[in-house]
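Hi everyone, sorry if this is the wrong subforum. Our group has a chain we'd like a structural model of before ordering constructs, and none of us has done structure prediction before. Sequence below.
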Amino acid sequence: MITRIKNALARRYWRVRMSPPLWRFINRGRRRTWQALALREAPHERRIADALRADGIAFSSLQELGLDHLWPAMQENARALKQRWVSDASFREHILGELESKEIAKGAKKTFLLPLYGGGWTTPMLEPENPYIQFSLSDTVLTIAGMYLGLMPKFDSFNLSETVLVAGDAKFSQRWHRDPEDRRLLKAFIYVSDVLDDGVGPFTYVRGSQEGGRYHHLFPQQFPQGSYPAPEALERTVHPKDIQKAFGKAGTVVFADTAGLHRGGFSTTRERMMYTAGYVAATSTQPRKFTIGEAPAHLSVLADASLRVY
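Answer:
Right subforum, don't worry. Here is the predicted structure as tokens:
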């Protein structure tokens, strides 16, 4: 009886807490901060933000974003980390040990992901000179996040991981789901390897399942959790033309509101390397997934603000 009462009160709390009027109210300071910046929007930034509002997903590239100078260092970084995973037993055991304890606590075991930097419930230290972090804290990417969210975004997560070949059915994030961090959020994905067919495990999204979209109320988030609908139930309801598979060559950037319905890579023929950066409101239900340490020097106003939102 007591458990039922607690659960009922928790559901009521989260319905109120995440309702649009209260969400706007508690984020009013960060909305004002964003408006005060009065940033000039580049055409490609406006195009991406408009596509996100319309469909919840948008495609770009490092070249279009003006960040292709980072690509050689990104490729080298990914190669070095993969080599370290293969050759450095202590590094491998440290990551696996951290994953083991945290995944057992969460009741999940993502054996299909090889976390190279962040991800997998690890809590890495932010490395400002890392080319992936430079991408994540670039004014261009933060501007897109702020334009879409309508407030000063908080950079809250990153990970570089490889999806490995695993036998069996799709598990956890490989299934259709909505992320739990907030009612609206943004993730930027960089394909570090080519993803040109189903066998490499393309990121897949239900267009229009973001807040305000035509599928917004389909299998809604259950705060503070997300939502994991049965695949057959989703595919009976969603028109096939609205299921978007994100194919692209290495260097492709995909932006998506993952509070919308999506599923991660399920690789069956070749491994997939991908980097993910996440952006939320300061009042997100989830803690930041990395450690900052000392405040990095020489950051732009936007980058500094995105890290100082706690």
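For your construct planning: The chain has one domain: 2-308. The first strand starts at residue 57 and ends at 61.
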